Amino acid sequence: MPVFAANLTMMFNEWAFLDRFDAAADAGFAAVEYLFPYGATPEAIADRLARNNLQQALFNLPPGDWAAGERGIAALPGRFDALKADVERALDYAAATGVRRLHLMAGIADPHDEDAVSCYRRSVTYAAGRLAEKGIDLLLEPINGRNMPGYFLNDFGAAERLIAECGLPNLKLQFDIYHHQIIHGDVTMALRRLLSITGHIQIASVPSRNEPDGEELNYAYLFGEIDRLGYDGFIGCEYIPRGHTLDGLGWFKPFARS
Ligand SMILES: O=C(O)[C@@H](O)C(=O)CO
Ligand SMILES: [Mg+2]
Q: Which InterPro entries does this entry report, sorted A to Z (predicted)?
């Protein structure tokens, strides 16, 4: 049975950030993820995880200046020193939270620009190497261009090729089913092909990015397929609740921790 992680960036927004840990645990989640922990101290987050017996499934390395529109800096020439500092900052939070996987965002850049391509590969190789020293996986997530126009890594094939070319055991794919359906469709066949390099899965309905209980995808079928394929990682619930988070958890009841 999949282990679901509540995404505290999108879910439980009725609570302040640190209180979302308590709310997710009360709702039956055994794990959490979110985009960024950096607005709270590592100690405060570790305390919420411990007191609620929650596992930290995932978070992202710092993304550059998010408010100014940056969506990662890994593919941005001239930012390598900043990236190295970001890796150390993320590792401080990793040590406190016990997370075993971190997502490195590529940034807004032309995927056909040679400088961006070589910069991205250098950043990925560096970050994966540094994380490997701590036993942590580095994840790359293709993101669809409707949600993130101009994003560098907008194709699952490109991520698959880079992971194969780098040949680093801790470099893995973040398979967000929502993005895959929008970019490529054919989710089941892609899961079968890519699960061996997948370090984390995320879900949401398509096209609305709400609860995984309707619209274009049949998640009951996909959960069965993910089980059948032997996936033993987390599934991040990266969706925007249609209304109050708790009112939309009907789909989760069979999986909730009691
Ligand atoms: O799918 C997403 O948008 C996230 O998983 C992410 O890390 C970047 O926003
Ligand atoms: Mg995602």
A: HPT_OtnI_isomerases, HyI-like, Sugar_Epim/Isomerase, Xyl_isomerase-like_sf, Xyl_isomerase-like_TIM-brl
